[in-house]
Amino acid sequence: MNSQKIIVLGAGAAGMMSAITAARNKSHVIILEHTDRCGKKLLSTGNGRCNLTNLEQSELFYRCSCKEFPRHILKQFTQEQTLKQFQQLGLYTKSRNGYVYPYSEQAGTVLDILKMELERLDISIIYNIKVDKICKTNKIIQIKTNMGDYLCDKVIIATGSKAAPKTGSDGSGYEIAKKLGHRIIKPLPALVQLRCAGDYFKAVTGVRCEVGLSLLINGKEAISDKGELQLTDYGISGIPTFQISRYAVKALDEGKKVIAQIDFMPDLEYEEFKELIKRQMEWFPEKSLEQILIGFLNKKLVPVMIKKAGLANKIVVKKITDKQLDVLLDWIKSFLTEVVSYNSFDQAQVCMGGVDTREISKETLESLRVAGVYFAGEIMDVDGICGGYNLQWAWSSGYVAGQNASKG
């Protein structure tokens, strides 16, 4: 029988998965959690519905300084295996455009299922405990905490990142890893709202619309996405913003110029859009430009576009020249706004950066610095795009860490 004692630091998604996996392999497992409950961040995922994975998987959906690193872990515990395991635990799921949710659409359901398995496996959780550092003497690992020292054979660090600190994800694990000799790649917010220059954002606050969104870094397109954009009083939000935000944040941190380019009519080519507008202008020459545009754009956007084009709201369309129309359409199809900042870790869904994966085994997730120390979840320099990918990373890395830590 496996008599190993394993301590898991952190009772988030990755920590719980690693603990369950290790305990199923007959290891004696204890979880140390520095807040007063487990799975706090899990409860907020998917707007409280818990988008626990995605049916469409690709290594391109994960970002890491060591590009091939996520692939080695994800192939060991795939989204198919994830769904099978949750099904065996009694969780019924449904998918919407590839996004997988519990059938109840409640994140609490997923947490309850995991907690029941923790209890069944007799995994104890010690709450409100602060870990200072990890020491190793011979083969014994000593974990120093505010509640005394704990001894174990293996330890799995699954303390999360700095994103959403109100859930307990405060980045404290970085210091623990650093004391073990690990390099920490600068943590920065990812999947986060972007702050833009412009005095017009207050006027368009609350607008939601389908757009094509591109990011220009020092004049060159870096990434683009399409989806529902949300305009705020300070800039842009919504899924397409989150998908490109990692690149904007990193570029701003490096002192580069960042421009968001927004296509407010993404389903129409420029000439096709122009033809539709001109047809309306021919049919209704006495209408104002504002009246014509209301048929195409959100009403709050119309005066902004007209002002950007240097025209008057009430101008009659028969007086608009072809050149003026081209300027207007350029703004609608290619609206440029400078990204000057981004929201803090408080609003970020995940974090880029973390423990350098070049110092972690891409097969076992064991530290290459200190034997017997493993990593799981967002503490590592791996982050995914929106859509359940960050939770899939938690499940996959948690499984791999727990599986390998529990080996003799």
| Coarse morphology | elongated
Major beta-sheet overview: 6 strands, antiparallel, barrel
CATH architecture of the largest domain: 3-Layer(bba) Sandwich
* N-end to C-end Cα span: 10 Å
Overall residue-averaged pLDDT value: 96
- CATH class of the largest domain reads Alpha Beta
Task: Determine the strand fraction and express it as a percent band.
Answer: 25-35%
Unreliable spans are: none
- Total number of helices: 11
Number of domains: 2
CATH homologous superfamily annotation of the largest domain: FAD/NAD(P)-binding domain
In CATH terms, what is the fold-level topology of the largest domain? FAD/NAD(P)-binding domain
The tally of strands reads: 21
Q: How helical, in percent, are the residues?
A: 25-40%
Protein name: NAD(P)/FAD-dependent oxidoreductase
Pfam family, one: HI0933_like
Domain RsdA/BaiN/AoA(So)-like Rossmann fold-like: 5-404
InterPro entries: BaiN-like (IPR004792), BaiN-like_dom_sf (IPR023166), FAD/NAD-bd_sf (IPR036188), RsdA/BaiN/AoA(So)-like_dom (IPR055178), RsdA/BaiN/AoA(So)_Rossmann (IPR057661)
Characterise the protein shown here.
Helix content is about 30%, strand content about 25%. It is an alpha+beta fold and about 400 residues long. The chain folds into two domains: about 5-190 and about 350-405, 3-Layer(bba) Sandwich (FAD/NAD(P)-binding domain), CATH 3.50.50; about 195-340, Orthogonal Bundle (Helicase, Ruva Protein, domain 3), CATH 1.10.8.50. The chain has a six-stranded antiparallel β-barrel with strand order 13-16-15-14-17-18. The longest helix is centred in the last third of the chain and has 17 residues, at about 390-405. The chain is elongated and about 85 Å long.
